């Protein structure tokens, strides 16, 4: 079994069929994780930036240059991933942007709550470096056929 799992996802009606280097923002506070994600996601996506928290994300969300996908770590200081998801989905400017929550593990309650709140998916981050290529491919595969 893979050391990460795509735990639950909805049909992403916000995404399009031609998926070539979609613009993404990543909310992650661990510098090592950011480096690994940059290395492995860069082949699939245009990484518009990394934010360590919600305030940093807001600084990166520029009108006219909004991302087509936001990855949010569940475990963040001050505002966690669910709180950030709530803020994004209740803001008319950002509510249509698909949000994928990422974490080393999810409880069933957290998955259900995230999906109810409008998350497009909950994906476990790899426990080992060698699985990052599968992690990035799983994210890419999820948005294949979706609309932006």
From TrEMBL:
One GO BP: phosphorelay signal transduction system
Keywords tagged on the record: Phosphoprotein
A Pfam family recorded for this sequence: Response_reg
Limits of the Response regulatory domain: 23-140
Name this protein carries in UniProt: Response regulator
PROSITE patterns per UniProt: RESPONSE_REGULATORY (PS50110)
InterPro entries recorded: Bact_response_regulator, CheY-like_superfamily, Sig_transdc_resp-reg_receiver
SMART domains, sorted: REC
């Amino acid at each position: 079994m893979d050391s990460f799992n795509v735990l639950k996802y909805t049909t992403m009606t916000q995404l399009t069929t031609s998926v070539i280097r979609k613009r993404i923002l990543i909310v992650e506070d661990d510098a090592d994780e950011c480096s690994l994600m940059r290395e492995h996601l860069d082949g699939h996506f245009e990484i518009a930036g990394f934010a360590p928290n919600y305030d940093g994300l807001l600084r990166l969300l520029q009108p006219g240059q909004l991302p087509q996908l936001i990855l949010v770590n569940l475990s963040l200081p001050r505002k966690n991933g669910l709180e950030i998801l709530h803020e994004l989905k209740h803001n008319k400017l950002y509510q249509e942007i698909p949000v994928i929550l990422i974490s080393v593990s999810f409880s069933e309650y957290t998955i259900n709550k995230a999906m109810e709140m409008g998350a497009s998916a909950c994906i476990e981050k790899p426990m080992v470096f060698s699985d990052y290529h599968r992690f990035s491919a799983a994210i890419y595969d999820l948005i294949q056929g979706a609309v932006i």
